[in-house]
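Dear colleague,

Thank you for sharing your sequence with our group. We've completed the structure prediction you requested, and as agreed, I am returning the results in plain text so they can be pasted directly into your records. Please verify that the sequence below matches your submission; if there's any discrepancy, let me know and we will rerun it promptly.
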Amino acid sequence: MTKHGLDLREFYIHDTYPMYVQRWCAMGMKEPRPAAILVHGGAHTGVCWTNCPDGRPGWAQHLATRGWDAYIVDWPGVGRSPRPDDFLTAGPGPTVAALTALLREVGPALLIGHSIGAAISVKVLDQAPNLVSGFIAVAPAPPGIFQAPGPLAAEDRPIRFDEAAMRASFTNADRFPHQAIDAYRRTLCDLSPSIFNAVASSYDNHPLAVTTPSALASIRSLVIAGDQDQLVVEGVSRAVAEFLGAKHVSVGRDWGLHGFGHMMPVEIGSEDILDRALQQIK
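Please find the predicted structure tokens below.
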């Protein structure tokens, strides 16, 4: 399929947990091209990388026009990926396995993970560090590096963000396209309670904990934080950066790009963030 000079291919990967994948690339550019795999966060799908709520193209197209093969996924059980029978209980393992399989097919690749997708991506780095050329963590959830503050009640039903939670967590920033908030609301989907529980686990019993931290040292990584992010505060993103041995960037303070929140990839002007991040990750 061809759209606006870009070639779009769709396929599925992994037999046990089929995962939907789109590949975007510009037509007429020489091969081989560098590959980037973009991993969405919880309660979202790969749409957050391909279409902004107000109709702007997403980071996938932006990467493609700059000579990348951009691979966009829907976690297993989310969006266009089939929902397995164990969706409520399987945790992040199926997504880690499917992403690792994708890396084996198209890697080495740059991983770009947002929110919980960044925490999942760190576990993928742990599984296949030789297939990752770099890592950009956008507003990252922590990959099992904090002690839980106390016993937490485990969720057993799909997690859904109501209007108040959506506005507080996802759409509060100045640069969010507020005129398109209804279109954005329709893109939200169920978050598996077992993935939610995994992120909330203590570091000594965490499904996303890294088993060989030394393997991450050779991977060039960058952690990006928005100055108006109310969900992943700067203390958390800085801790993730320290754990990864990555550079930490507050896009407002460090790059003069103010007004960004948790949903940076769909916010107005975020292409500037991506361009600067790509320059620093080279």
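Summary note from our side: The radius of gyration is 17 Å.

Kind regards,
the structure core
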